[in-house]
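Researcher: Go.
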Amino acid sequence: MSTDISDATSGGSGNGAHASDLGHIVLAFDDNRLVGLLFGEFDQNLAMIEQKIGVDVIARGNKVTIKGDGDACEQARHVLESLYQRLLSGEDLVPGDVDGAVRVAAQSAAQLSLPTLETKNRQSMAQISTRRKTLIARSTTQDAYIRAMDRVEMIFGVGPAGTGKTYLAVAYAAALLERGEISRLILSRPAVEAGERLGFLPGDMKEKVDPYLRPLYDALYDMMSPEKVDRGLQSGMIEIAPLAFMRGRTLSDAVVILDEAQNTTSMQMKMFLTRLGEGSKMIITGDPSQVDLPPGQTSGLREALALLKDVEGVAQVRFRDQDVVRHELVARIVRAYDEAGRQKAEAKASRVTEAD
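Model: Structure:
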């Protein structure tokens, strides 16, 4: 792959930009077999880059010309080069990967959520690999999350739906299990919606809690073959452990994932966190804004985040609406709800002030 970069030398543009602010980059990709995959069907990947970054991208043969604002052109170049490297390494490319590469390029100059982990301006993002699939972080927060899972024993991943916090946790655990670095994967989730009625559902315990753990299963089957997952469930190497049944256990040589942790009570969270044994990691995920507990009951997740924020060996990674990797509409929905919650809180505070 070769690159030709030059500044525009013509007069100013209609939007008032100076000539020196404009960029002109030509990229040539050596492997013609991969060019079609890089550009996408009907050049849809290039169109996405144009739309999201605000540049003109023109493809001719194995060459791409990028024109526009100088910084935006550089961003588009980083995106195309990183995607091409993925293809060279034999990985697949889907529209979500393009969106993730754009997101990473846009955030590359910003410090990661965990300042001590990595420096600024790093284009190489963390990844999780199994024999079945490789995941590459699609935002700097995802990158910090994966690196935190590598470095500490207890990780809280909190934030809105669609940010990948649960999916990445299961993928990471599956990778460790496949490499033999742990002997068990334990999945847990509070079944708040069913309450005491859980015992009246048909089937054994696994069948009773399966509906609540479906997101965890989906990630497992993505990262491991169905046969391996099924064998793991039968042998106990992969275990479904309802939160209420965790009391009294010591969980060693395992990755233990607690999903939807915002729906734990204070007592349940303390009980769960103190199950950590030798050679184990705990990954706790949840969205503090989506608590389904009865009114007046404290969320164990909210309390734990406050109590453990300065405890050595515990990492807290907070996802935001900008980290949503599902449909763009999901991010807009999250922002709308957050704004409504903010306005409601301000109105309540104003009423209290007036009453005083």
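Model: Residues 328-355 form the longest helix (28 residues).
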